[in-house]
Amino acid sequence: MQSTFSGLNTMVNGIYTNRLGLNTVGHNISNSNTEGYSRQTAHAAATPSSEVYTLAGASQVGNGSTVTSVIRARDIYADRQYWKENSTNGYYNGKANNYAKIESIFNDSKNTGIQNAMEKFYEAWEDCSTTASSDTSRQNVINAGQNFAQTLQIAANQVQEQINSLYDDITLSVETMNRLLGQVVELNKNISGIEANGANANDLRDQRDLIVDQLTEMTNITVYETSNGMYTLVSNGTTLVNGITKVDLEMSAPKNNKEYGLNDYDIIIKQTGTIYSPGGGELKAQFEAIAEDKGYIDEVARMATFLLTTLNDQHKAGYGIDGNKDKPFGNANPDDDATTGLNFYGESDYEFTWTEADGLVVKNTTTNTEEKMSGIQIVDLLVVNGELTAVDGHKKLATRSGERASDMGTIFYETNAPGVYTTDKNDPNIKTDGSGNVVLVEVDLGDKLVYTANGASGLKTRYTTDAALADKAASGYPIPVDVNGTGDGSNAVWMATLLNCENDKTSPEVRDSVRAIGKGSLYSYYNTSMTTMGSAASNMNGRVDFQSNVMSQVENLRSSTNGVNWDEELTNMIMFQQGYSACSRCLNAMDECLDKLINGTGTVGR
């Protein structure tokens, strides 16, 4: 038979159930803006009924309700999709951030970048081609060349700093990952202990999932949950967390990279010493950005190589106006008329050679030693030669054409002694004195070319046009060119041409050379590089926008399950409030009945 007081217990159970429901509603409302919080629900169920025997037989009488569990609203499939897309989102944002910084380095919108410096350099050569004898024009070329070199070096150094900054960011990310992985391990322990007793560690699970959210932004993470509620985290084949154990990540020892003037690093697993390679997230983006940024240094280095090789070769083919002219016919080195050996960029005792196989080969002509250089090492070599920047150095600037007869075919005569030559006395082009000294050479090869030379101790020549002498060649000694002393600007034209014209429009001295920047002009090479960069940055920004829309959809899907809805919670609050009040009233009614029964029984007739 059911106890007389069983109704009180039934109502107390109802009060407890509704009170716990109200507490859960309050917990939801309080955490509606808490990051990572999942809405919780108190699940109520009827308590086991009691068997009551009556005259009609046995009956089952309920004993009220009880809360069987408080569970969180969570969709594991939405979580897995979020973690996957969050890793992709972190990757795209990491790449886009690097492009933004690189674009700011090569930004020419304020007329302070490489393009502006290159245009100023071109304009200086162009001006010098028309006013080659002007000290001002020649000095402007040197100043513009210095500015161009410094601008390239500044850009390369800034990219270098960006790479170092990326390594700093990676180091911070590794430290953050270690801290978060340690928190996952601690939460695994606590969750397993709480749920082993039958409870639900809802808030701890929310904290753990929030940590996974943060981890997936940095790298790709696959989550597995074991039967005891622990997480196993696997990234790109590496198990980062396995229940109550984890790996420790750290940066490798620095690896000196002379090519780019910096130290490279890897992420390694401390316990095994193996390299951890992130397969997604910001970390993957940062490592890829480092490789791309090195490519931008290489592009600057190729421009520097072009200046050190092709542009230098053209400069050395010309003549200055420093009075180093009128060399005699019999001089042992007729190239002394030109600026041979005087680089525009780099030291004059260095030779710079570019090959596709070896890259830039630098030879010190004083020691005859060679060294292959690449990357920022090349950019650091880029400096206007000290002979040009010294006092009166601008007079050595090669603005006059340096083609010699020996370059296009030669006229040779048999040599008796330096400055003394013999030839057929019947040769109308050669006149000698009684001692056999040549006093006049006059070669008329038609409308295109006239050579005139005179002088008993040696021959002076005047080069007038660009005709070839190959069909007139004989054996003997070459006749050099006697350039005039007022720079004619012809070599300055060729120098300017190198900057803005294709390879086939440059001078014969450099036309067939292998160029570090290919067949195009320096200007077109740089513009192509910047266009490619801008296109890549624009495409990445488009991917960021697209992924942002994907993330919004996934977050909406996720929040539709675990988000706190105020209208729903207030409705539940009213429901539990009314239930609590109703149970209380019913309890009062039962209490009055029992009061009457206890205090009123046996008092009749007194």
UniProtKB/TrEMBL annotation:
Single GO cellular component term: bacterial-type flagellum hook
Highest taxon of source: Bacteria
InterPro entries for this protein: Flg_bb/hook_C_dom, FlgK, FlgK_helical
GO terms of molecular function: structural molecule activity
Domain Flagellar hook-associated protein FlgK helical: 100-329
Family, similarity comment: Belongs to the flagella basal body rod proteins family.
Listed name of the protein: Flagellar hook-associated protein 1
Species of the source: Anaerovibrio slackiae
Gene name of this polypeptide: flgK
